[in-house]
# Entry
Amino acid sequence: MTISYKISDNLKDEMIKYYEDLKNEKAPQYANFKAEEGGTVITLYNSGKVVFQGISADIDANMWFDLEKHRNNRDITKEIKDNQKDKDDSKDYRYVNLSAIGSDEVGTGDYFGPIVVTASFVDKKDHAHLIDLGIKDSKKLTDEKMLKLAPELIKMCPHVTYILDNKTYNQNKDFNMNKIKAILHNKVLITLIEKDNYKYEKIIMDQFVYPKKYFEHLEGAPKIVKDILFLTKAEDKNLSVAVSSIISRYYFLKEMDKISDKYKMNIPKGAGSIVDEAAQKIYNEYGLDELKNIAKINFKNTEKIKREN
Ligand code: MG
# Structure
């Protein structure tokens, strides 16, 4: 039996202390400790994820569930159940066999580089070929694999991609990311739908906000695509979303390469500490105005830059 959940921060130290004398071997990479008690192996990862393994894993885990309940009012048993539901949710086959237009975006969690949004039309007659190419489980594809795959998809599937450059992004007043996404999704969808008379059965969007909110964000837009099916984990439910996700990622990676070439240094993805270092370097060598051309300036990373007075 294996049970895992994310421990609350205020219980972490307590757990580490509790298992201090029960540590049985070197902890695996990214783990804080690995311990054994009465046949149950307990591993706490740096991310806060704790895993109980063994015949009586539930008994050992329960002690912590009780603490979570009393100190943090968290019902871990329910959380685990909901999580499971979430996983089952990706096994929703109702829409797999439809010809559809799907849209997805990338770059919203990356400090450097643009936001890229794509809408594409995927005919169901192309499904077998796309699966053969390996586009299923697009979330698991490496960047390398996507770079190889995307040119074929770009040729095969009608699509519209919009790249929001950083200069334009940084002119935003409120930096409401969901609003930015809504506007961009709507834009690529309209452009694609007006391009040709595609025989799509559904328009599917990888959901990032409640539908009501999505349409609120679009208030005042001259044209709004309304008949959208919003799905979580949509890339698993219809290939049009997976295709859009891969094409978006492709253009994003190409843009990142361009930036890296221009500044003759590796411009990292994400928003972690290597990104902070790169931001500092760009700031030192080129200044803040230049940084505004290649980074999302409202991200916390900007605040971490040590500025000379
Ligand atoms: Mg998405």
